[in-house]
Amino acid sequence: MTRHFVTLGMTMIGHVARMPLHILKQKFRARFGKQSDNQADVMWRTANGVSSAKCILPRTIH
Questions:
Q1: In what helix (H) or strand (E) does residue 13 lie, and over which residues does it extend?
Q2: What pLDDT, on the 0 to 100 scale, is given for residue 9?
Q3: What contacts 34, CB < 8 A, 6 or more positions away?
Q4: Do 21 and 44 form a contact (C-beta atoms < 8 A)?
Q5: Cα–Cα distance, 59 to 15 (Å, whole number)
Q6: What residues contact residue 15 under an 8 Å CB cut-off, 6+ apart?
Q7: pLDDT in tens for each of the 62 residues of the chain?
Q8: Contact predicate 46/52, CB 8 Å
């Protein structure tokens, strides 16, 4: 996947994180086809530290 990002002009994860999601999707579509929206979304969320996982906090002992 690194090669694909370099082809798109992104050599560091910060490039992906700073790019607006809709622009990243456009770049992915142009390079990989319209089925790549989900991949662009996952890459952007990962680069920005966004997760859909539930956060379960440990119980505190009183």
A1: helix 13-18
A2: 85
A3: none
A4: yes
A5: 38
A6: 5, 9
A7: 678 788 888 888 899 999 999 999 999 999 888 889 999 999 999 999 998 888 888 887 76
A8: no
